[in-house]
Amino acid sequence: MKWTTGLVVVAALGLSALTGCSGGQSGQGGRVSGEPAASSAPAGGGAFAVITHANSGDAFWDVVKNGAEAAGKRYGVTVSYQGDGDPARQSQLIDQAVSQKVDGIVVSMANPDALREAVGKAVAARIPVITINSGGDRSREFGAITHVGQSEDVAGRGAGEKLKAEGVTKLLCVIHEAGNVGLDQRCKGATQGLGGTVERLQVDVGNLADATSKIKARLQSDTSVNGVLTLNPAVAVAARDAIADSGSKARLATFDLSADVVTAIKDGEILFAVDQQQYLQGWLPITFLVLYRDNLNTVGGGLPVNTGPGFVTKDNAEQVAELAESGTR
Q1: pLDDT in tens, 141-159
Q2: DSSP 131-162
Q3: Residue pair 212/241 in contact by the 8 Å Cβ criterion
Q4: 223, 160, 178, 225: which is closest to 199 by C-alpha?
Q5: Using one digit for the tens of pLDDT, what is the confidence trace for 34-66?
Q6: Distances (CA, A) of 115 to 132, 220, 243, 281
Q7: Could you give phi then psi for residue 137, rounded to 5 degrees?
Q8: Cut 0.85: pTM above it
Q9: Residue 145 in contact with residue 285, Cβ under 8 Å?
Q10: Which region holds residue 140: left if phi is over 0, alpha if psi is between -120 and 50, else beta?
């Protein structure tokens, strides 16, 4: 899918800041319910809430947080970031933001139906909502003004096609969050792109040692599996270790980046990473909400604003590594 023309507006307002701002080091955990919200700018310029389905310590979401807070500093607005992997608690965080009468809400919808009521309350309160990362196909239905993310099925097909070109015929697709619709779409897309056999394995991103054990056991029990696709950078590292420990020759690829993943790509341990440029999933929604507040601009024309997919391979990993260290990739 193509980038929307609305990004021309973003380029005029924020591209120089995007290249000049560093949002902090990755490794800062997203705040969960009950913890104090972070403030990236003095109060008075407006307040925006970013509420995701991430648990604390997820490196992927640290980069989203960095992008949102960098945009807050750029535009002189307050940005609070909170995350909770439990849909009920995520809904409570949305309710809290509505009660605080924030100027806009950014929300990821890994489990859209569980968030319908909370998002509906925000829309009813005339608080503009932008969805990010997952749940893009339900965004307009829920009343959001736009969605920022990537088409997961398109990204999955691209990953499957690249793995097929590497000779993979039987693939293990590792799902790390039960009920996440976006992860299901990635595996379905990979199945279409590969044209071979794709099996799924459920692991827990909160228990990476157990994830390594489960992947290792599957590879040892079925030596015909010659490819592994993970959907999270931390799980990718667990899969790399599982492949080495099991003696398997399976080729490994992943979705999303971390410094460890980029290093593994450079070292030839991971073929490639599907990059959805999650920094933009923090930066762009704050930009769009400021534009909406100040000028009633909407971006996308009813279609999602795509931040990916791109691919990080051995050819460009060195350049990306420098950016990943700064917390922007």
Answers
A1: 999 999 999 999 999 999 9
A2: EESS-GGGTTTTT-SEEEEE-HHHHHHHHHHH
A3: yes
A4: 225
A5: 333 444 444 448 999 999 999 877 888 999 999
A6: 13, 40, 37, 19
A7: -75, -10
A8: no
A9: no
A10: alpha
Two structure tokens written together for 162: 């690249």
User: Residue 11: CB partners within 8 Å, gap ≥ 6?
Assistant: none
What residues contact residue 84 under an 8 Å CB cut-off, 6+ apart?
32, 33, 53, 54, 55, 90, 93
**227-230/273-275 β-pairing:** unpaired
Report d(CA 261, CA 75) in Å as an integer: 32
Q: With beta carbons less than 8 A apart as the criterion, state whether 143 and 129 touch.
A: yes
* 90, 49 contact by CB (below 8 A): no
| Predicted local distance difference test score (pLDDT) of residue 285 | 98
pLDDT of amino acid 146: 96
Do 174 and 141 contact (CB within 8 A), yes or no?
A: no
Left (φ > 0), alpha (ψ -120 to 50) or beta: where does 80 sit?
A: beta
CA distance 7 to 134: 20
Q: Are 26 and 282 in contact, with CB atoms under 8 Å apart?
A: no
Paired tokens of 90: 């995520």
Do residues 252 and 272 make contact, with C-beta atoms less than 8 angstroms apart? Answer: no
